[in-house]
Each structure stands twice: as C-alpha cells, then as structure tokens.
Amino acid sequence: MTQFLALLLRNRLAAAGGIVLLVVVVLAVLTPVLPLANPDATDTANRFQPALSRAHLLGTDHLGRDLLSRLLWGTRLSLAVGFAAAIFAATLGAAIGIIAGYFGGRTDNLIMRGVDMLMAFPYILLALAIVAALGPGLGNALIAVAAVNIPFFARNIRGVTVGLAHKEFVDAARLSGLGHGRIILTEILPNVVPVIVIAMSTTIGWMILETAGLSFLGLGSQPPQADLGSMLGEARSALITNPLTSIVPGAMILVIVMGINLLGDGVRDALDPRLRSGALTRPMPATRVDRPTPPPAETEEGGAVLALSDLQTQFHVKKRVYKAVGGASLAVRPGECLGIIGESGSGKSVTALSVMGLVASPPGVITAGAARYDGQDLIGARYETLRRLRGDRIAYIFQDPLATLHPLYKVGDQLVEAIRCHRTVSKAEAWQRAIDLLKQVRIPNAESRASSFPHEMSGGMRQRVGIAMAMANDPDVIIADEPTTALDVTVQAQILSLLNDLRRERGLAIVFITHDFGVVGQLCDRIAVMYAGRIVEQGPTEAILTTPAHPYTRRLIACVPELGEGRRKLEAIPGLPPAVDRLDPGCAFAPRCEKARAACLTGEIALAGSGQRAVRCLFPETEIPSEQSA
Ligand code: ADP
Ligand code: MG
C-alpha cells in the first residue's frame, strides 16, 4: 500500500490530478456546512450579477440564484451520481464477467452474446433510450449510465477470468474440494480486483460526463435541483450575453474529469505489476557497460578461446546495488570443458550472460573487467560485433528448452532461421543442414522430426533440439546454463555424453553451468566454484573432487548422495547464501562456515594458488602450493 502511494506520488501528473480531485471532493462533502446561500432561492431582481458582486462571489444566474452555491451543490450531486454509477456498473459488470469467464462454455457464450448486443448500440443513444423508457430523472439517468457501461466491465473482467480459471492454483482449490462460490470469492476475485479498480478509475470521468450530458438534455436532474449538466443546459440560452453562467459549471466539469483521468492513469500504472518491474521500459540491445577503470592489460591465457578477467556485473535497482558478479576470472581452451558450479543465486547465469552482453539493461550494468574471445574484448564491443558473434561463434544452451523454442514454428524451421541468420544459404540447403544437425544430436527419424512442433517432443528431445540450435553455426564456444537440470537422470546422461562427443569431434570449448556436483565429474576437465558472485575455488575436476580446498566446496560435495556407498549422512549446508546487495568485507561464506575466525571477516581475501589450482580461503582444507608447475 505504501509502495502504491509512493509510486502514485512519484507520477507528478497523477499527483496533481489527485490533489485537484481531493480539493473538489472535500468542497463537495463540506457543502452543507459552508455558509452558502440557498441554491434554489430565486431573486429575479438580481439576475446575471457579475462575479465578485455583493453577497455573490461568482454572481447569479438567469433566475438570480447564487452561482457559487449552485455550483457546489451541483458538483456534489454530479460526483455522487458519477461514483454511484461507476460502482454499480463495476459490481454488476465484474459479476457478469467472472461468471462468464469462470464457467465458460455455453454460459459464457450466452452471457457474452447478450453483452455484445448491448455493445452494438452507441453509448449515448442507448442511455437516451433507457431514460426515455424509464422517464426523466436523476435516478433513471444513473441507471442508464451504469447500464451502458456494464458491457465494458463485463468484457474486461471476463478476459482476465478466462486466463485465471485454468491456472494451477484454481485447479488446486478445486481438488481440495472447494465449491464454485468459494473458489470465485477466494481465488478469482482477489486476482481481478486490481483490474476492476483500474477499469473503474479510467471510466468514472466518462460516466460523470455522460450523466452531465443527460442532465444537459433535460433528462437527468429536474429543476430546480442543480447538477453540473443541468446548470450548463439552463445557461445555454444566455451563452453569448452572459457567458459566466456557462463557464462556471463547464470549468468545473473540465477540472473534475481531468483530475479523475490523470489520477486514473496514475493508479493504473502504479497497480500494474508489470509496469512496476519496468517490463515496458525497452531493454537495451546489449548490457550497459560502465567501466570507470580500463580493463586490465591482456594477459597470456595459454591459448584460451574465451577468457574472462575480473568481470563484474551489477544490478542497479533504484538506490540498491546488487553485486551479482564481483570479479570472475575464467578461461577455457578449445576442446576443453569448464564447469561453473554453485548454489542457486550465486551468479553463474549472470556471468554467462554478461559475456555476450545478454544481461537485461536496465537494471544490469557491467562495471569492470573484460571478456576476451580470441583476444578481442567483448565487453563494450559494438552491438554489431556482438550480434555477429552471438549464436555464431559463441552459442548458448538454456535450462528450459520449452521456453526457448518458439511454440508456433516447427523445430526444423527454427533451426533454418538460426542458420540463415548468419549464413546466406538457400532454404533447401538450410533445411538439409537442419536435418543433419538433428541427426548429430541423435534424434531418431530426423527427417520427420524436423516437421514437429516443440510441444510434440519430450523434454530430452527438446533439449537436443536446443543443442542442435547451438551447434547450427559450428561455434567455437558453447555456454550451457544448467542444460540438464530439467531432465531425468537417464536423459541427462545421454545429453552429457552427446556434449562430450561433440566437443571431442569438433574441438568445441564448453562452459558448463550447473549446481550439481554429480554432473560435473562426467563432463568437465576443470571446475570453478562460485559463491556470492565470486570464484572461491578453481582447479582440475579430479583434484577438486578428491581434495576440495575451500570449506564451501567440501560441504557442497558432501551434499551429493552416492549410490552404492551405503548409508551416509547427507549434510545440508546451514544458512542461506548472502543477499548480494549487502556484502560484508571478507569471505562471503564465513557466516555459514564452521572454520571461520575473526580474520575471515576483515578485508579482501585473494584467490591464492597457481593458475591451475587456486582457492579463496585463509584456512583451506588442504594447502595449495602457491606456485605449482602447470
Ligand atoms: P545462478 O547462479 O542461480 O544462475 P544468477 O546468476 O541468476 O544465479 O543470479 C545471481 C544474483 O543476481 C542473484 O542474487 C539474483 O538475485 C541477482 N539478480 C539476477 N537478476 C537480477 C535482476 N534483474 N535484478 C536484481 N538482481 C538480480
Ligand atoms: Mg542460473
């Protein structure tokens, strides 16, 4: 709620609209106690008095009635009718929409066709027809205005409800034995209330105008009772000779409707969670780079195709700075597989995405370091350069193949697109290549499978397609971000051996991200262990698995169950990884480490050791010789 208000007030226009509206509403509420003349007392001797005349602040109208008094009483009435109509229309419309959307099928059809029929008439004509049938009067005008707005609410709310009615949480409520009424009240309604409020806040202004329109035509409030519309209607004949009588109610209508609309837009923006998280701000084509210090001079990485040096990526969200990656240095050579391992949230994905500038900006910013592909620094490279390399020289495989494949295109076509985006080859050639790729990733019946849609394939098959797509342009480096996490163990083993074969056959360099120590042993030559955005240990897979040096690595390995090892107590690591916006100096793992001492919490702890094997710990489990011949 406070967040909502803060967002609303930050929107200057909405705040201005809200303040204007608040003043008008307070005046309207206070009208009965203000020292005003009787709004209906005529005094024909003092017709059309100018403003600021004696006893009449805004002058008088054609019957000598006090304009200020009539204006305030009229505003009060117009606001009341407008709000009442809006609430009436919203309640009824939402009820209709929820019922139609929730039950669907014939109920939906019947209700919505009725609503469509109402919507086929022009608003004001329909309102006129309803008032004509019911007879003039403010109450009937209210009913007419509410009635013509019901279809708008019904349509909106039905659309939202249809989307919700088949969500898992509604199914779960059904399975737990709740009746339709309870489900609608406790599951559906809370989810549509924001939509109702938004629809209301943007239509109240319109409803006040419509009511004023009916009153203007003499079908709403009846004399001598004043509302803004009837005041305008009565002043019409004196528009030229005494414009004041028209201007006063006209200006009030303008102020009210503008205030409501500005506030309504603000409410809509503040209530929409997607707008709040910045989904409508267009992300930049590549991650923003803001390196105050120039990247370190190129160091000899021993023939690495991809080398990160001290890469730092942060997320700047409002005043908070999340240091997702706080200085990662890695290198991978052709034909080599480097594993990056760490708990969820340790910064593995952000590291991987930073390489090609794929971290969304805003809020992502790369603040230091370099990522060199074949000696060329990719951080801060021109977008065209990055685009040429993306998917061509450096390709990605992501965790969820269903989310990365387009649901409406055949997988063959998607492969063709990936190929033709970097090569000028004919469609037929590309299709043939797509089939070859599918064969390479060991998809049976590749020819017919190329014409399948992603949803027609199993999870393992889809991930194979994902790998085929990454292989489409024969890249030098594949960055695989937890590619097997969503798969069962047998398929996982197949995918791992497939990646292994591909790298042996083609000299492919693989950066393999996982949180599973069981997986790295099968594929990776070297491992980098990541914690809170930093590499805490690095070395050959064998060495790390047998003699882990960092307490964190040891505890991670101890969490892996092993078959055939008999009963063994699996030790979970107590505590949680730290929040990366409040990193204390010293070792980030210290609060969860039983070996931590006071020294661990002061100052920077360097990654000590040779290039091959290194650990960032003051009290490692095993001593690492500081200069080991590689
Ligand atoms: P993982 O190691 O599981 O792949 P990530 O690299 O996805 O972890 O995330 C690293 C850290 O960055 C996490 O603490 C996460 O909360 C933070 N983070 C990721 N994306 C954003 C974002 N858009 N805004 C703020 N923080 C983010
Ligand atoms: Mg991740």
Automatic annotation (TrEMBL):
Pfam (any one): OppC_N
Annotated membrane topology: Peripheral membrane protein; Multi-pass membrane protein
One CC-aspect GO term: plasma membrane
Cross-referenced InterPro entries: AAA+_ATPase, ABC_Ni/Peptide_Import, ABC_transporter-like_ATP-bd, ABC_transporter-like_CS, MetI-like, MetI-like_sf, Oligopep_ABC_C, OppC_N
Family note: Belongs to the ABC transporter superfamily. Belongs to the binding-protein-dependent transport system permease family.
PROSITE patterns, per the entry: ABC_TM1, ABC_TRANSPORTER_1, ABC_TRANSPORTER_2
The organism of origin for this protein: Pseudooceanicola sediminis
Protein name as annotated: ABC transporter permease subunit
Intracellular or extracellular location(s): Cell inner membrane; Cell membrane
Main location: membrane
